[in-house]
Amino acid sequence: MGRSPSAYAPHGIRHSGAYVGENEMSVFGVPEAEEEIYRHFLRNPGTRADDLDLLLHSRPRDAHGRIARLQELGLLRAEDAEGRIFPADPEVALTRLVDVRLHALHQELQRVTRSRHVIDGLRAEQGARTPPPQGIEQLEGLAQIRNRIDDLAFFARDEILSVEPYTRLSAENIARSRPLDLRCLRRGVRIRNVVSSVALQDPPTAAYLRELAENGAAIRVTADTTERLLVYDRRAALVPLDPRDTSRGALLAHRTGLVSNIISLFERIWDQAEELSRADDGTEIGGDTAVARPSGIERRVLVSMCTVGKDEAGARELGVSVRTYRRHVADLMQTLGAASRAQAALLARERGWI
């Protein structure tokens, strides 16, 4: 007797229509019962926790335990002298939870990407029948080569080097490569790629290369190479048996000496190649030298340097790792010849980059 009709509404349902039983805050690690408590205090700030167990259909001790956890999460403030409870501002509270959640996900992602030892352990279970790769492996057929490339890219931690003299990429190639390439860049893996200048004549291929460059990849263009190679973390190198016909198979080298020689070949090709921005008619002429304009992501980093105080916030705003963000900052400062971030921002404004 004496209760309003809403008190008898089914658990999680409110007549206002704002909350209909969906645990929207579960993505932040907030269970449904605790979310309902938080919503209760948003609607009734400064009230006491009396009879809250009736709202939750639970024991009083459980209700107080959930309040304590919400206070730990920063969603509720501590009770005042009169036992009243006030909720934290949703935007402030959820921003903090987003940071905590992203940090946890980042750590989880690092654990996943560093799980190569699991594969080694599983290989050990096979015993002598299929020993881990030593020296050189021969891969046969495009399917096996593609699957191995996917594995190598997935577990790459630091750097991927490639020379790929294709004249165009099919829509299927782009659709297959884009998720892996962008994932590597988001994780802070440095990508250096040399492609044929002819590829820029194909609009979809050129657009894909520009997209990679805008997301942090370093891409150069050459007109006179037939080499085709891939190097992952300077530990494994993949080369085709026949550069003119990749379907014939490939060799995957693990020996340090062989990989080092392939890296040396890559560096020679890289040094002789031209920046994508210049080959793509994206240069600025200043005096006697041509200065490449910043890529899309570099412009965003410059803007972030002027508006955001911490690297973590800038990286989160751009959707990249802190390591990748700091690498962009260092590269921009070197390009601009700046001794500090403030000077880099001023020089970028003078050039009309921001």
TrEMBL record:
GO MF term (any one): DNA binding
Species the sequence originates in: Streptomyces griseus subsp. griseus (strain JCM 4626 / CBS 651.72 / NBRC 13350 / KCC S-0626 / ISP 5235)
SMART domains according to UniProt: HTH_LUXR
Domain of life: Bacteria
Domain HTH luxR-type span(s) in chain numbering: 291-348
GO biological process, one term: regulation of DNA-templated transcription
TM annotation in the entry: none
Name assigned to this protein: LuxR-family transcriptional regulator
Gene3D superfamilies: Winged helix-like DNA-binding domain superfamily/Winged helix DNA-binding domain
SUPFAM superfamilies linked: C-terminal effector domain of the bipartite response regulators
InterPro entries per UniProt: Sig_transdc_resp-reg_C-effctor, TrmB-like, Tscrpt_reg_LuxR_C, WH-like_DNA-bd_sf
Matches recorded under PANTHER family: HTH-TYPE TRANSCRIPTIONAL REGULATOR TRMBL2
